[in-house]
Specification:
single chain, alpha/beta, Neutral Protease, domain 2, 2 domains, five-stranded mixed β-sheet, 10 helices, globular, binds zinc ion
Length: 289
């Protein structure tokens, strides 16, 4: 295995990729660091675990830089350095696999086909999804619906900033994903949150992800009615409070405090009581523009 890395400042441009599978749970084996002492401006570190040509490295770095930049537009800078690891995986789309890294250095590991064109990477949701995970701490396997729901909620927002999706296409993606997930839901008489282990056992990962995303879409709309931006709350959270050791309840309490209400915790309590796939057809985010 070769590892060569270099660092570049977070200021940037464009690029993304394929069928993404997110497996953030691998990171649970690693010891989370304490939050203090983190730099206020993120640097990006690139590590290549296979042989990549210089032009391929430039393409991957530009792609990451664009995605990180789009995330920054939405919620501000990540308050820590971010490590990207790349391994080659050809013949299955631009990004057949990725997972977050949650050790002392947080980041994302990507398996990529660097022979794919830049536009194939830019149109893929995997990197917007994985990078969005880093906005929140790792919350544990039992709360995967929350973490995956959040990253799924964010991914199309990021792609909207990148210019890959316009408003109409973004709304259509949300609608399609939620409808597909709802149709696959196999536990209509059980609470969604309690059904997650069974959904996982059945391999219904998109149903877990998009059921969870409906919580964030709903919370965004409730806060908006109060004149509060969920993305603004997340930006404040990153600036003041992002810590790797946060538990779910602590995190939601912090977000509520920043929002000046109890909307998110009350919404979470209500969401935990939802039987069947969470309601979503009323959401404005799904409405055609
Ligand atoms: Zn994920």
């Amino acid at each position: 295995m070769t590892s060569s890395g270099w660092r570049m400042p977070l200021l940037a441009l464009v690029f993304s990729g394929g069928i993404g599978v997110c497996t953030p749970l691998q990171a649970a084996e690693m010891t989370p660091p304490r939050g203090e002492g983190l730099p206020s401006v993120a640097h990006l570190e690139f590590i290549y675990d296979d042989r990549f040509a210089e032009a391929e490295r430039r393409k991957l770095q530009a792609w990451m830089t664009e995605v990180v930049g789009a995330l920054r537009v939405l919620v501000g800078p990540l308050p820590m350095d971010v490590r990207f690891r790349f391994a080659r995986y050809e013949g299955a789309g631009p990004v057949p696999w990725a997972n977050t890294l949650r050790g002392r250095r947080q980041g994302v590991r990507f398996y990529v086909d660097p022979t794919q064109p830049v536009e194939a990477f830019r149109k893929d949701w995997t990197a917007p999804h994985e990078l969005s995970h880093l906005v929140l701490p790792f919350l544990g396997r039992e709360h995967a619906w929350f973490s995956e729901g959040f990253a799924s909620f964010m991914q199309y927002r990021v792609m909207r900033v990148m210019g890959v999706l316009d408003d109409e296409a973004m709304a259509a993606r949300y609608s399609e994903r939620l409808e597909t997930a709802a149709a696959a839901y196999s536990q209509p008489n059980r609470r969604f949150v309690e059904a997650v282990p069974q959904l996982r056992a059945e391999g219904l990962y998109p149903t877990i992800y998009w059921g969870g995303a409906s919580y964030f879409l709903e919370m965004e709309e409730r806060l908006k009615r109060q004149g509060v931006s969920l993305l603004g709350v997340l930006s404040d959270y990153l600036a003041c409070c992002r810590r790797n050791e946060d538990e779910l309840e602590d995190l939601v309490a912090k977000l509520d405090a920043l929002a000046g209400s109890t909307t998110l915790s009350q919404g979470l309590n209500g969401f935990r009581r939802v039987v069947g796939f969470p309601p979503h057809r009323h959401l404005q985010a799904l409405a055609p523009r």
